[in-house]
Design goal:
Helix content is 72%, strand content 0%. It is mostly helical. The chain has 2 domains: 3-64, Arc Repressor Mutant, subunit A, CATH 1.10.10; 69-114. It is elongated, with a radius of gyration of 33 Å.
């Protein structure tokens, strides 16, 4: 790689930008560097730098969002637990019936003692 190609690759040049390099450029913008000056220095359009900044800020905002736990979350957890317990009870009941029918026959449950 020649000196001029190496410098071109270091500054901006052509090709793909890694996420880290994009983040570094955006952070420079956020610290107050002029968009046009940085654009010329990095050999990237101002529109591209602006787009990276918007994506960076939007994703950063999404990462900071969190929903507080409220009473509904606790109620949902209790209902899920109860549903799981009922499903287990049903599975056990079905297995008991299956074993009973295998031993006594399928009509044993429906027979009356009269």
């Amino acid at each position: 790689m020649t000196k001029s190609n190496r410098r071109s690759a270091e500054v901006g040049g052509t090709g793909r930008w890694s996420a880290k390099r994009k983040a570094d450029a955006v952070l420079r913008l956020l610290k107050g560097e002029d968009l046009d000056t940085l654009s010329r220095q990095l050999k990237v359009t101002a529109a591209t730098l602006s787009e990276w900044r918007e994506v960076f800020l939007a994703n950063g905002l999404a990462g900071l969002k969190s929903r507080e736990v409220d009473g509904r979350d606790e109620q949902i957890a209790a209902l899920k637990k109860a549903l799981g317990e009922n499903a287990l009870d049903l599975a056990i009941s079905r297995e008991i019936i299956r074993v009973y029918e295998r031993k006594a026959g399928p009509l044993a449950l429906g027979k009356s003692t009269s």
